[in-house]
Amino acid sequence: MNYLIDLGIKQETIDRIIELNSGAIIITFECNQEKITNIINYLKYVGIKNIDDLLIYEVDFFLKDFEEVKRKIRIEDYETIYNINQDWAYIEEI
To answer: Which of 4, 30, 37, 57 is surrounded by the most beta carbons within 10 Å?
Structure first.
């Protein structure tokens, strides 16, 4: 999961992802590097700041289809972006 470091994800976050998830999830993260990279870059682009927390606590979000992520979090949806930045758990509501 070293590709996450290149995306600005902290080593502590990667360690926590590995600690909290099954081997199957970790393998899925390794096998879907391009999709996960696209999602992380998109979240940064729209202004999501707490990506590390999302990776730790909402790992399934990063396994969604990229187009679905773009539909759920649109750049012009300031309220959703604000709410996610205030509390990562808000992502469960969208």
So the answer is: 4
